[in-house]
Amino acid sequence: MKKKQEKTKYPGVYIDEKGRFFYQSEFGIDRITGKRIRKKGRKDANGKPFASAFEANKELTRLKREYHKVNNFSNYKMTYEQFMNQVYIPYYQTEVEESTFEVREGILEKIKDRFGSMSLRSISIEDVQNFRTWLLTSKKRGGAGYSQSYASMVFGVFRQSLDKAVDMQYLEYNISKKVKAIPKGKAVVAYWTKEEFEQVINQIYIDDFYEHLNFVMIWVYYMTGIRVNEGTALNWSDIDLKKKRMRVHHMLILKTRTEWKRNSYTKTEDGKRTIALDDDTINILKVWRERQLTIGLGKVDDFVFSYDGLPMIKSTIGRMLSRYAKLAGVKKIQAKGLRHSHASYLINEFNVSVLVLSQRMGHSSPEITLKHYAHMWTGADNTIAEMMAGNINIKTASETKLRFNGNQAINKQNPTKNPTKVAKG
Predict the structure, then answer these.
(1) Same domain, residue pair 255 and 354
(2) Which residues form the Tyr recombinase domain (predicted)?
(3) Is residue 403 included in any domain, yes or no?
(4) pLDDT in tens, 21-79
(5) Kind and range of the H or E element at 355?
(6) Residues 66, 70, 72, CA angle at the centre, nearest 5°?
(7) Are 343 and 361 in contact (CB under 8 A)?
(8) Same domain for 119 and 22?
(9) Using CA atoms, how far apart are residues 98 and 416, in angstroms rounded to an integer?
(10) pTM
(11) Distance of alpha carbon 354 from alpha carbon 380, whole angstroms
(12) Pairing with 255, which of 83, 101, 377, 400 sits 20 to 30 Å away (CA)?
């Protein structure tokens, strides 16, 4: 009787009853759980079945070396801070955009400060729950005092770091997933109505060169709905003044006005788009370009939103909006509030369809658009109801065309000749 598996000259490498090679070996005992760690496989790192015992042994040797490197004693005592500095932060920095890393870097430091001195393997459910509670508690009560959306982001980054620790085999499981995640909550972004927008632009003195630039920026953002860093990245080569089109194919990543990078992509894959421009916007852009040309700007590769050849900074745009909002006596909004203002303008003034709005905003799907702007269509229902009134020509029959055998009491009632008059009475 043939054996189910045969040994080879390599310890831990065998041949099964069909002549196929595989490895099967114990890697040791987990120092935390006390369980034996066993590994078995029939393919190499590239997913190719072993053609010989030598190949199976080569893969087994590689796995053992990698396992012992990760699971040596020093790694069992690794602190969360060591893990973050040596493993997670370097890894994370290579996986995301530079701008994203700059935004999240502060969050990573906050988490590291919280758990830094603790052994990675000693973080408990209680530690995680206390952290969650602290994130959601106001400063007056000894908490972080963060908004729910920011607390959700911080807690999510913490959970992701432990996911990576599991992937690297520093941990058997992610302890933070035994604690409920923090919901993002509904972020409310302030925006300007058409009337508020008109009040704001009425405060701008465009004879002044810098205020003229402010007017152009506020107008273009409001009338196109482009993202802030899509607007700051605009070159005149992106504007077709004859065909009345704006090409949105870039985003600007910048630390300072002199240290920046113009990426040839937008926030999402569907963000690359071409936007139709109205005649008012075209005329405003033509006048602005002529004015830029008088000081040596306005060439094809020059920034549209610039007074000195350098791009505008988001914080500068934010301060500009606050200044004019105060003068106009309207609520302050963030730079991204102009994008929401554009959506509100199209929905409330023109009852634009969700599909058209989705394409104009550069969303990956209409569902994303509805998620952010569905509440803005509430007024459109009243407009539709008003338009429906009188649209149907109501003319009923002068006598019955049916043989009715129902309740005779109903038959004896006088029929209503004009149902619309009853409704009015």
Answers:
(1) yes
(2) 187-389
(3) no
(4) 999 988 766 655 667 778 899 998 888 999 999 999 999 888 877 776 666 555 667 89
(5) helix 354-361
(6) 110
(7) yes
(8) no
(9) 73
(10) 0.65
(11) 12
(12) 83
